[in-house]
Amino acid sequence: MYANNEIGSVQPIREIAEITSQHHIIFHTDAVQAIGKIPINLQTEKIDLLTASAHKIYGPKGMGCLFIRNQGNLPHQGRFIIPITYGGGQEFGFRSATENVAGIAGFAKAIELSYSEMKETTIRLQTLRDNFISWILENIPESFLNGSRTHRLVNNINVRFTGISGTDLLEKLNQENIGVSVGSACHSKSLDVSFVLTAIGLPENQAGSAIRITLGKKTTTMQIERVKSVLKRSVNELRLEKKNCEKTNSNP
After folding, report:
1. Is residue 106 helix, strand or coil?
2. Residues with active-site annotation
3. In CATH, what is the architecture of 13-112?
């Protein structure tokens, strides 16, 4: 993964690709979260295969792309991947099926717009993200950031709060029309604790207290101020409810 979808951690993909290229190792990266947020230059980065998705950069849903190095001249066809469907020969023979021209054009335009706006959007979102993270850690007791403070996507905030359930907090925020998530969208039907959070060493009770807040290019300071107020109140309410419940259960 170029960047993790849950905790926003950005990996040193350029450096990894340098090493793999020196040893003739085929290297693929999932750049679904990174594309449009991190400047990726496939003319200089020695990535062999890269996948991305349009909806993450405000493009049409259902559109994905696979970059295959040297695909234009096809000297390595069959070295990196082989087709799993055959027939019409579309997509350079790698995937035979009628092409979604409108979707492809929409994806291309979304990439063009995201790269032209990237510098300005990055500066704005990074400022909002960092200020929001600082506010949470300073104003809500026993709150913690998951993942790197610096090597993370500009739109990602993943935090946990001691003593509460992330799912309960999500429901409270949802009642206020504030959308956050627990875990990943890919596993939204699962009730299991996030394997990403347990993989970075968190015990299950801490991993289960985490939520992910994602900023968008239209997110405003006013919206974040409202989320701050509701978030702090909701965490306090859940902690008080838990305390009262424990007190009730401890009485004979």
Report:
1. helix
2. 186
3. 3-Layer(aba) Sandwich (3.40)
